[in-house]
Amino acid sequence: MAWQSLDIQRRSATTTPMPGARQATEVAKLIDISQCIGCKACQVACMEWNDLRGEVGHCAGVYDNPGDLDSQTWTLMRYTELENNGRLEWLIRKDGCMHCQDPGCLKACPAPGAIVQYANGIVDFHQEHCIGCGYCITGCPFNIPRLSEKDHKAYKCSLCSDRVAVGQSPACVKTCPTGALHFGSKEAMKDHADHRIADLKSRGFSNAGLYDPPGVQGTHVMYVLQHADHPEWYAGLPRDPAISPWIGLWKGLAKPLAIGAMAAITLASLFHYIIKGPNAISKETEKEVEHDSRSQ
Amino acid sequence: MNVTRRQFLQITAAGLGSSSLALLGFSPQPALAEIRNFKLARTTETRNTCPYCSVSCGVLLYSLGDKSKNVKTEIIHIEGDPDNPVNRGTLCPKGAGLLDMIHSADRLKYPEVREPGASDWKRIGWDEAFERIAKHLKSDRDANFIKTNDAGVTVNRWNTTGFLASSAASNEAGYLLHKVARGLGVVALDTQARV
Amino acid sequence: MIRDPNDLQRYTASDRVIHWIVGICFILAGLSGLALFHPAFWPFTLLFGSSTWTRILHPYFGLIMTLSFLLMALRFWQLNRMNQIDWAWLRRVGEMVDGDDHNMPEQGKYNGGQKLLFWLLLFGTILLLFSGIVIWRAWFHFEIGQVRLASVVHAAVAAVMIGLIMVHVYASIWVKGTIRAMWYGTVTRAWARQHHLAWYRQMLGLGNSQPR
Amino acid sequence: MTNHWVDIKNADLILIMGGNAAEAHPCGFKWVMEAKATRKAKLVVVDPRFTRSAAVSDFYAPIRPGADIAFLGGVIRYLLSNDKIHHDYVKAYTNASFLINEGFGFADGLFTGYNADKRSYDQASWQYQLDAQGFAQIDDTLQNPQCVLQILKRHYDRYTPEVVSQVTGTPQADFLKVCEFIADTSAPDRTMTICYALGWTHHTVGTQNIRTMAIIQLLLGNMGMAGGGVNALRGHSNVQGITDQGFYTEMLPGYLGSPSDSDKTREEYLAKRTPKPVRPNQMNYGQNFPKWHTSLMKAWFGNAATADNGFCYDWLPKKEAAYDVLALFEQMDRGRMNGFICQGFNPQASVPHKAKVDGALAKLKFLVVIDPLATETAEFWKHHKDFNEVKTDAIQTEVFRLPATCFAEQDGTFTNSSRVIQWHWKGADGPGEALSDLDIIAGVFTRLRALYAKDGGAFPEPVLGLSWPYRIANQPNPEELTMEMSGKALADVTDLKDSTKVLAKAGEQLSGFAQLRDDGTTASGNWIYCGMWSQAGNLTARRDPSDPTGLGQSHNWGFSWPANRRILYNRASCDAAGKPWDASRAVIKWDGAKWAGNDIPDMRPDAKPEEGVMPFIMNQEGVARLFGVERMLDGPLPEHYEPYETPLGLNPMHPDNPLAVSNPAARIYPGVLESLGKADEFPYVATTYRLVEHFHFWTKHAVLNAITQPEQFVEIGEELAREKGIRNGGRVRVRSKRGQILAVAVVTKRIRSFGVNGRKVHMVGIPFHWGFRGATHPGHIANSLTPFIGDANIQTPEFKAFLVTIEPA
Asked: What are the strands of the beta sheet with D13-17, ordered from one edge?
């Protein structure tokens, strides 16, 4: 079955359902942190494929370069040195868009079609529709999208939707030298993760597990963690990410409520006018005014 | 008064909710999004080998154009060759960044010479470069060639000009340079592989 | 230019200018804000050149609105101090809406409703300013938690303010003879006597003991 | 590599020591991860730093730079004293049972035969006891005190876990844990592979580091096995290839030793290099040396090389001294070199002691740099702030910089670490006027040849007579050269046993080195590459990745030397009777009539097991050498010596012998000892290394790589940072006796101090990728700091252990 990456299942700032008759296979990228050597091949391949070249920055005392995600850096290795039970562990997490099943960015986006979720689960930004408001950043539970300083559009990992659409894997996955990155149907990735977790458990990582947070209805980028009980050890991976309740309120309840209120005021005004009529000057007052004028 | 009334009307209309939008003439949403075009669709694919480490990963060079006569071929993308049994399509960060090495601003484009004591380069042509280098080599070889050693043994060596060879150039280049060097009697030769 | 000499001056020219600056900015900010708030209003972006222009301009509309409104508030705040009569008026506002204003306490230049509106709008504007700055990514970078909170505050306050302004506008339409006060600066004596008796007396130099 | 990249997946244990495969060879390292994932293999990393290899290891043990032999010597002792060796293998396939001369001994850190004045050994006492026929004597019981196994036991008995820990700084428990992992693979059906690289070679005891590991792999019976071997993870894409082309002063293509002054005649030269068997029935494959050499002479000198003139033996120069890269720069520094040609080599950055290199280059009359990129070497005369402080106008060297095309812009072959020769195709033209290396070499040579033809000169015969059969003289085609290297028949080549059977007709490409002859009827530019372009065509261009063996051999992908064999010594994967030690990953086996299976047998195909032809066919003994009876200049058994700059000031193994502090056979040029620092002034051990984001001084020119690692830094531990008041991300100055660099400090838990010989030794880690040209921020050349001294055997510089001091800048 094709990845059907052109079929859309969700579209930003759109209130009616998308055509959904065709069933697409959900895809996923699996990031097995226990197999990651932090070589940054994924970072380079991502930049190369997507024609991105950021600034040549500086060394800030760590290996994290560039220092943060930006419009030219859609994926980034984050390194954590952890002393655990007297042994050093170097936890290296590939940060980037998680392609949530319930994407906070898409929910927050005010521009119709600037953010779409394809039927295969990929969440993609369409910069030509982006207005640069940054609401996607506000909505994202993983702090991923970044506004470009140059064009003020928001950018993030597209899971190489252009490659996936023609049956290829994302550039980062293809390049990964150690097989820390895998790509396939979400089901297959979960199966693969099960094997990896069993292997890790056999090597003493009793808390190994899959990171596929239910708070965002699961993600299309998942992690195998050696310490699934402590996701925060991995450069602050959120323990139980969900779209912030503020965002829920803002983009959920507030919308119909406000529109309803405005409509109500409008209708109330209209019908009040019709029913009660205008508040005109009474004859009585006019007489009194005449009286007052005379008495002046 | 007009402005206020217009605002009023607009709010009224909009307040009816999104379902009425179509009445105002806004078309339904497209069913298909446009993804970024697949940039390799009409490129030429060439099989090559990564020049960095000794894993010698297979790489695929993607270049613009179909190698027709009037087109200057330009490599626009490089990725791993999935057929190569060692790298199976993967590339490390160096290999994944090969494109920028090929197109580096530091690529040399013309033969140049720095004259003795000069503070900068001077562009020269290949003929001049070959001619001048050949003359240097000949005059040093002729002046310092040793036919026999003190014991009278034929040694036929030239040890006042040294050769260092790349360990990232092809076997063919390394072989030819070795053949030429020994043919000239060079003994002062070594390769990057030593260090 | 032709004026009834009997008309009462309610707003000076500069009052009116500043009001309309605020008003225009509010409309622009409101339309652009609504466009970003709900897809139903997205077509409003066409009014501003493009959707991106809408995003760019909205905060500047808001900023000009805020500054001019603050200037206006500086002029009017003393006239809008609430007193006992205002609260009494507000308690009876239902009667008036129902069409019977006979029992409404007599009002000065502004009635309790107008005063309350003034303070609500002032408070709302300040909230919009601060929350707007927090979410204005072109210039500022705030903590994500603050941005999220500010987004909600900004939207909610804006919605409430739009509601208030709708009431404000409707009130001016409903009460005949009102709009001209902001148009030409004057009202008829009858209008003043009918709706702002105390102010009317003050303007005409009449005592308080006048019978109705 | 004795094995190959994909074969790593067949291992049960992968030891990474003296290297950092995850960072230096990520795509090869994938097969380590594959072994872990599919075979439940374990990965053990022993390294001074907690590297990115260590990050995915099952066990990591720290080790002080330069103490590897102490560690591995301890492993040998552990294996021997705990009886964790593969007995049948050791007895049959190694020289464990061979008797060594009575005169051999080792005392106070020195082997017998040492001459302190010459700083070298007389190796006479290191030899086998020979019988009347000249065969080595053996003791099958392995009990004779002069047998190799007993000597080995005695030698390494001193390397107790306590001593090992004291010398290496590895906690004893960690050391023993590593021993347990390794010992587990002594079972016949368990294998360990060892992946090492420059972390072992960049020492004055570099060669012995590797020999220590070879001894361990032999004791465990892991050589020749799938998933075993001693695997050098080599540096550049074609570092294996250029080594095979023998571009060393001491070599000719195919590892044929080059003549020196003592090889007066061809006969003497050949006799010295054509070995005699020292055990009966052995293949002693080196006996074919004359065929290889003669074929080379025919490839180089063509029709001029005849039997009458000794195949132009005298046209080959004879060397009288060392001309390795250190020696070259020493000669240059003394003003004895006038010209220098650097093809794709950046010595100013990659040769130790930059100040000395700078001075040496400035003494040249002319320098020719052939490179695709703007290297530091080409601009050694240019002032670049404090990165390259020189007086430009005082430098009288004439420098030519010639633009070469890069890999993507030319056809040709690279030979990878697995010895697989692979063809690559040109994808685009080079920039501007860039020419291929071949065109540049030919351009210079044809001009030079024309000058000699016109004007004559010193010994013009080899210049004019050099075989140059290329269709376009100044543009040799890579295919022509590949065919020339591979070799062809000049006359009909017949079977040695049956002269009526023609193996190759005159003019045909040869199918392998077995067809080479010493009578001038064959030409082959590199005998080990013979057959890569046979009558069947260009085998290096084969692209069939299929692998019916399941072992990852892919015999139809490219062409692997020798003879398309993928695992060397594979005869040793079977027991004496020819049955695989481990049937589940059999490489070859004796099928009753011949050797066959999943690889090209490294054995005469019809050698019946009962003939006792042993697997190490290139050795005169037919077996592998636990005890190195020849070739090693600094001892037949590895011994721990301190780096030349030692933080201890003595060798804890031999505290009382000043001659045995550091390798007693290392070459020391005058002035070098004075350029070495002492621990009182330079108390910290420094080591230079690569980062995964960069490749040497090359990727700093690529923006993509510059982005991922933009600025020069050094790494230190938290404790040293506290002591010296160095803040993470702050700038520091690192000084050695020879120079200094400035860089950002990375303060990390990954670097710790070592408890050595009762004291604490801190380490400074120095990634070396920076220079004054490139897309990264300019940096200092790390080799400003390193010492000008090399390994005793092959003169590879000691980049990996030297002394520095560090302070906030």
From this structure: D59-62, D42-47, D13-17, D192-196, D230-232
Cβ neighbours of residue B141 closer than 8 Å, sequence gap 6 or more: B158, B161, B184, B185, D457, D458
Q: How far apart (Å, rounded) are the C-alpha atoms in residues D439 and B169?
A: 13
Interface check for B171 against chain D (CB to CB < 8 A): the answer is yes
Residue B10's CB: how many other CB atoms inside 10 A? 17
User: Are B23 and B44 in contact, with CB atoms under 8 Å apart?
Assistant: no
Asked if residue B76 lies in contact with residue B62, where contact means CB atoms within 8 angstroms, the answer is yes
- DSSP H stretches of helix in D321-380: 325-333, 347-350, 354-362
CATH fit for domain B44-102, picks 3.30.200.210, 3.10.180.10, 1.10.10.10, 3.60.15.10: 3.30.200.210
Q: Which chain B residues touch C174 with a CB distance below 8 Å?
A: none
Which two three-digit tokens encode residue B78? 């490089």
Nearest to C39 among A112, A269, A280 (CB): A112
Phi, psi of A224 (to 5 degrees): -95, 120
- Cα A257 from chain centre: 25
Report the amino acid identity of residue B137: L
**Residue B146: CA count within 13 A, CB half-sphere:** 20
Residues of C with catalytic annotation? Answer: 168
Mean pLDDT, chain A, rounded, equals 94
pLDDT in tens, D19-30: 999 999 999 999
- In CATH, the number for domain A8-239 is 3.30.70.20
Query: Which residue of B lies nearest to D325 if distances are taken between CA atoms?
Result: B190
Lowest mean pLDDT among A3-7, D68-72, D690-694, D773-777: A3-7
Considering CB atoms only, which of C151, C166, C173 is closest to A262? Answer: C166
Nearest one of D566, D625, D551 to D601, comparing CA atoms: D566
Interface pTM, i.e. ipTM: 0.94
In whole angstroms, what is the distance from residue C160 CA to residue C166 CA? 10
Per the CB < 8 Å rule, is C169 touching B24? no
Q: Measured between CB atoms, which of C99, C205, C206 is closest to A276?
A: C99
Judge whether A251 and A104 are in contact, CB under 8 Å: no
Query: For residue D747, which residues of chain A lie inside 8 Å, CB to CB?
Result: 61
CB contact under 8 A, D429 and B73: yes
**Residue C182 burial by CB count (10 A; 0-12/13-18/19+): exposed, middle or buried?**
middle
* Residue entry with tokens 């020999």: D211
State residue D273 phi and psi, 5-degree precision.
Answer: -105, 0
Convert the pLDDT of each residue in A250-268 to its tens digit: 988 889 999 999 999 999 9
Whether C186 and C9 have beta carbons less than 8 Å apart is answered as yes
Residue range(s) occupied by CATH 3.30.200.210 in chain B:
44-102
Question: CA D211 to CA D224: how far, in whole Å?
Answer: 16
Domain extent listing, chain A: 8-239, 249-295
